[in-house]
Every structure is written in structure tokens, then in C-alpha cells.
Amino acid sequence: MQVDIHPSWTPYLQSEFAKPYFKDLVDFVKLEYRHHQCFPKGTDIFNAFDHCPFENAKVVVIGQDPYHGPGQANGLCFSVNDGISHPPSLVNIFKEIEQDLGIPYPSSGNLMPWADQGVLLLNATLTVRAHQAGSHQGKGWELFTDTVIKIISEKKNNVVFLLWGGYARKKKRLIDLNKHHVLESGHPSPLSANRGYWFGNKHFRKTNSLLEQAGEKVIDWSL
């Protein structure tokens, strides 16, 4: 069974694609897309990987679920397609960048320029049924994306993992803290941000500082 993913990831994930759980997952997703409106569109499901080849990945942002409103999700966590109004979490991400780095608030919420620089914007679940948050959780996606995190941890060095909120922070157990950097904070959602758990974390500045120390090119967070 072939999965349409950037070829740089294939050597590391090919064995995963052959496992029974992944075959069941593919069957489930195909059925869901056939009978229901689902997001992102089929060709965008693996966009996070397609825009961030394995060898380029130096920052990992972990989200939970794709946006479930029409036209929003584009396969990158927290990102929306051009011309789509920014969801509340994304608004708070941009506000923190503005405060942290003085970068003006952008008109586009499409984070592909970050991905193209080596930021893997990985949702734990890569698909969702329209208007039903979490509807594709527990079907196998989490097994797959946990494996992705473990492979990055095992095969690479000095990757910066940004864990925002309780769900993402649970993924810390998958990361070798002796060779990678983990930055944790509250989630950028209004509920968390308004309680003081998001703003002022300076994760974007800190990420670039860690990349610089590792001899890597820093991320241009402007869009």
C-alpha cells in the first residue's frame, strides 16, 4: 500500500505503513471521506511532511486535531488556508510573536513558510469530520504520529520541540531530552492564554537562540 508522503520520510515510515493498524486507519479514513465531509482535503493530509522533509526538520510543533470548519485546515497544525479568518489560537500565536520579536501581525494565517524552513507542524490526528472535533481520534493516527516523534528523537539531534498545552506536553515522554530541546507552555487557546499560561513564553525567540547555538539557520517567523 502506497501513502502519498514526501519521499524523504519513506525510509523511516515505510515499516509503519505496512502495520495492520495503519491499514485499518487508511480504510477508515477512505470510508469517512467517501461518506462525510472531512478535513483537510485528501491531498493535504500529509502536508506537514511534504513541506518539511525529514532532513530539514529542526523544530517540531505538536497540535491535536485539524480545524473542522470549511476551508480552514491545510494539513499543518494551527495553520489555515490563505483568505481564511484566523482562529483564536492562531491569533494568540501571532500576538505572542508580535510581542516577542516585534514582527507585525500578518494578514495570512498560512504557516507554510515556517514549514518550508524546517518547522514540522504536526497534528496528533491528521484528519477530522466536518464540525465534529476529535471525531477521528483513537483510530490509529496517534500511534502513527507518536512514532514520527520517536523517530525524529532517535535519528536527529538538537531538534526544538514546542509543547503547548497539556495534550502536547504528554508527548515529552517520547523525546530524548539528552539530545533535544523541549520548550513547554500553556496552549495558545483563549482559555489558557487569558489565564496567563501562554503570553510571554518567548518560545519563538528561545527557539532561534537554541538553533543558533546548534549552528542551524534561525527561523524567520514573519509571514
UniProtKB/TrEMBL annotation:
An annotated Gene Ontology molecular function: uracil DNA N-glycosylase activity
Top-rank taxon: Bacteria
Example of a GO biological process term: base-excision repair, AP site formation via deaminated base removal
GO cellular component: cytoplasm
Subcellular location: Cytoplasm
Predominant location: cytoplasm
Start and end residues of each Uracil-DNA glycosylase-like domain: 50-211
PROSITE patterns: U_DNA_GLYCOSYLASE (PS00130)
Active-site feature positions: 65
Reactions catalysed according to its record: Hydrolyzes single-stranded DNA or mismatched double-stranded DNA and polynucleotides, releasing free uracil
UniProt-listed CDD domains: UDG-F1-like
Keyword annotations from UniProtKB, A to Z: Cytoplasm, DNA damage, DNA repair, Hydrolase
Pfam family, one: UDG
EC number(s) on file: 3.2.2.27
Function: Excises uracil residues from the DNA which can arise as a result of misincorporation of dUMP residues by DNA polymerase or due to deamination of cytosine.
Family of this protein: Belongs to the uracil-DNA glycosylase (UDG) superfamily. UNG family.
NCBIfam families on file: PRK05254.1-1, PRK05254.1-2, PRK05254.1-4, PRK05254.1-5, ung
Protein name per Swiss-Prot or TrEMBL: Uracil-DNA glycosylase
Encoding gene, per UniProt annotation: ung
